[in-house]
Structures are given as C-alpha cells and as structure tokens.
Amino acid sequence: MEIIYKRKSQNSDIVKDIEGVILPCSWEEDRISIYTFNQDEFLIDNDEMGRELIALTYERIKVSGELKVLINGITINKKRVIKLIEFTIIS
User: Fold this and answer.
1) CATH topology of domain 2-90
2) What is the residue extent of each domain of the chain?
3) C-alpha 63: how far from chain center
C-alpha cells in the first residue's frame, strides 16, 4: 500500500523517485536523511513537510523534490538537501 503526499514546486531543479530509508543524522536539530540503496545520502529540508518524516524514521520511502547544495562552513563539506515536493511510503 502506497500513501502519497504532494505539494506544488516552484523550482525547475527537481529530482524524482529517490528511494531509500529515512535515518536520523542529527537528533539535536531533528534532522533526517534519506539513504538510498546506492549508498547516497540526501538531507531532508527541515521545513514542515520534512519534519513530518521524523515520525517515519527507518521506513522505506520514495521522494521527489527540489535539490539544493549546502556548503558546510570551514570544512567545505557539500551536502545535497532535498526540499520535498512529494513522498510515498513504501510498505
């Protein structure tokens, strides 16, 4: 059974159908990531829709969203961040 959640996008830099597992990356900031089966990591944007996924930690999902790249201060650690447009819980 699939459950689909959607919102409208305003950006053309869209990634679609990324499948993986939701895992915590920073409990202090309530941040989560989606880890794909290709061992890629995408941070989930910490907006209202992204925070909904905290309750789905360790669940398998498929997401589509607007892709951003964060550069982390001094270490120049590039992280891909997805602002969700839609997600589907895969059971």
Assistant:
1) OB fold (Dihydrolipoamide Acetyltransferase, E2P) (2.40.50)
2) 2-90
3) 7
From CA 1, how far away is CA 74, in angstroms rounded?
44
pTM (two decimals): 0.73
DSSP, residue by residue, 18-80: EEEEEEEEETTTTEEEEEETTS-EEEEP-SHHHHHGGGGTT-EEEEEEEEEEEEEGGGTEEEE
Contact in structure between 71 and 63 (CB atoms under 8 Å): no
Q: From the first residue on, what is the mean pLDDT of each consecutive set of 10 residues in the chain (91 residues)?
A: 50 78 79 90 89 92 86 60 90 76
